[in-house]
Specification:
With 446 residues, this protein is α+β, with helices and mostly antiparallel strands. The strands form six sheets. The protein has a six-stranded mixed sheet with strand order 6-5-4-3-7-8, sandwiched between helices. Helix 6 runs parallel beside helix 8, helix 10 crosses helix 11 and helix 12 packs antiparallel against helix 13.
Length: 446
Amino acid sequence: MQILFRNLLRRKTSFKQDVVCRAYSSCKFLDIGQPTPATHPQLLKDGEITPSITSEEYISRRKRLLELLPEKSLAIIAAAPQKMMTDVVPYTYRQDADYLYLTGCQQPGGVAVLGHESGLCMFMPEQTTHDIVWQGKSAGTDAALKTFKAEQSYPISKLHEILPNMIKGSSRLFHNMLTAIPTYTELEAFQKAASIGKVKDLSNITHELRWVKSPAELKLMRESASIACQALLQTMLHSKMHPYEGMLSAKVEYECKMRGAQRMAFNPVVGGGPNASVIHYARNDQKIRDGDLVLMDVGCELHGYVSDLSRTWSPCGSLSSVQEELYDLILQTNKDCIKLCRPGTSIRKIHNNSVEMLLKGLEEIGILKDDRIKYYNQLNPTSIGHYLGMDVHDSSMISYDRPLKPGVVITIEPGIYIPSSFDGPERFFLDLLYSSVPCYSTKALG
């Protein structure tokens, strides 16, 4: 009995030690309303404010902005407003690209002010107990200092006391006109500055900064493009058994989000037959008929960076001889234009080259004869591409004539749209043919 009792004691002691070895920390991390390395270690590494983008990179962005601003000037950037679906139900929130680019804050309600003397000053929203219960916690003044590395931070209620003095002491005032809010535009100091011509649009400067991507940004854009490509391939395989625009739209969004995307970059364009000749078709409510082609123009957003790609295919698995002629022309144009994507060229030059190639091909096929430019513009009213980054049409203030640099990201999207109303040979009364792929400036990914 004594031997048995000793064995039980040993087993009990061993069990206690085993429990201690497997104990885990119950320490609670501070929730600031968006992922941090402490709350989401699967997404962020130490030192990152948003996935792949470190606090040092955000600070560097602000320094570069200040270098481009005139001496003693001030920049005001408001967060994107929260848009409501109904009186109490908000749409999914997406931050303004300039505000996100400079602060890393993904939440509404804030105003960022950047000056040579003040550095980054963030005015943060104040939450009530009711707000926390219904919406969860959000970043406040402490997070502005500790997480977003602001030099100063105040509650948004203090803006009307502090910002006027900052404005009065500035030589010029810049702000994001697209996200301007009455909270600061109705201040007497702001209105006085505007009346004497001191207020300018900040987008000309921020778009210049955002135009050339850093290695970390390019990495996110590659991942975003990869997710969209994989999702589109899965959707193409899905299309034969489920030839409905709405189902294909749902499928591609599902596949993107299952691979880590936060949202789609824009509402997917899924056009079957005649619907595909509407460039920004968004209804996605029709069945795709046998023999029709389907166009899908999609992209997804990954941690603030978007992709944009388009494909045309036949759900039934085959193309007619006429469809093949046009498809081959567009595919060859696409490949040749991608070869032109290198530093020194421009979107305009690439576009002009694509027009020449398509005009020549369409004449050889027999679609275009007289007054070819007029009819060509009916078949393709779009540009060959656009800049891509935090927005789908990124850095829109930058001219398409600007020579490309390493790190600039553009799309290459040749296409031919042939609506039933087009006055051409009857055998080409297709509804649409379109083929494109995302393209990067040659040195950008090297």
